[in-house]
Design a protein that fits this description.
The structure holds two protein chains of two kinds. By secondary structure, chain A is mainly alpha-helical. Chain A contains four helices and no strands. Chain B is mostly helical. The longest helix of chain B is centred in the first third of the chain and has 27 residues. Classes of the chains: A mainly alpha, B mainly alpha. At the A-B interface, α1 and α2 of A face α2, α3, α6, α7 and α9 of B.
């Protein structure tokens, strides 16, 4: 792909997906939602997720050890 | 994004629980607009950008132990916001992200029909998220590669490579649909 084609493609892309206006503002004050999030997450138990994450990590490590060729695929999607 | 004073940042990093809560609220109000704008540039959906702004500050709240006041709040918040947006791009379906009607830009080329713009937008949404996010910021938003690299936590060379790969794959996709860019 030469520079001319690249410039043309960039212009087409900007036509299809115009840049966002400068200094956009959220449509509402997000602090109340932040407070709800803090209250909900601090009250939620994390034990299941800690266990699940550890099991998932162990499974992935075991799979990578058994099939080393899968490691680049994992790294690509990280 | 304007960084807060060093006292505010130190209170956020290692203040008492009360000082930390107060500093967090102040930082939230100081930076929510900039974080929202940054995320909106990536996800291009206001409602999603609002949700991800809250998600970003939730991650900031939890990660205060990793914050280094000497390096400033802005870049750190932007990196976390980019990561949150990238996580969302990895789970969202293209059809969900794309608005029903793609508005024509002010200086639209009349030769490029709405249907072609829609096909280009859909082809772009099919790119791998890490390629798409680099191309969105560097090509569509026309931001300096250095800023994109800092936000993504990669080198400028890696940004250029991702943009090149994104454009090459996009071109190939469009050619398969009979569109010759």
């Amino acid at each position: 792909m030469n520079a001319h084609h690249e410039d043309r493609l960039k212009k087409l892309l900007q036509q299809a997906l115009p840049p966002v206006e400068a200094e956009p503002e959220p449509g509402r004050d997000l602090w109340p939602a932040m407070l709800r999030r803090l209250d909900a997450r601090q009250a939620a138990p994390l034990r299941f997720w800690a266990w699940f994450d550890a099991a998932l990590l162990a499974g992935l490590a075991a799979f990578a050890a058994l099939v080393p060729a899968s490691i680049p695929v994992f790294l690509y999607y990280l | 994004m304007q960084d807060g004073s060093s006292g505010l940042l130190n209170a956020f990093r290692q203040g008492s629980p009360e000082a930390f809560e107060a500093a967090f609220e102040t930082l939230f109000h100081q930076h929510q607009r900039a974080v929202y704008g940054w995320i909106l540039r990536i996800v291009r959906n206001p409602a999603t950008a609002e949700d991800l702004t809250v998600e970003t500050f939730w991650r900031i709240y939890r990660a205060r132990g990793h914050f280094e006041p000497s390096r400033g709040f802005e870049g750190w918040a932007r990196r976390i916001a980019t990561r949150a947006a990238l996580d969302w791009l990895r789970t969202a379906r293209p059809e969900v992200e794309l608005p029903a009607e793609i508005p024509a830009p002010a200086a639209a080329d009349p030769a490029v029909s709405a249907e072609i713009r829609r096909k280009i937008a859909l082809a772009f949404q099919r790119l791998a998220p890490k390629l798409r996010i680099a191309a969105t910021l560097a090509v569509i938003e026309d931001l300096p590669h250095k800023d994109v690299a800092e936000a993504l936590g990669i080198s400028v060379a890696a940004v250029k490579l991702r943009v090149f790969r994104a454009l090459r794959l996009l071109r190939k996709d469009l050619q398969q649909q009979g569109i010759t860019p």
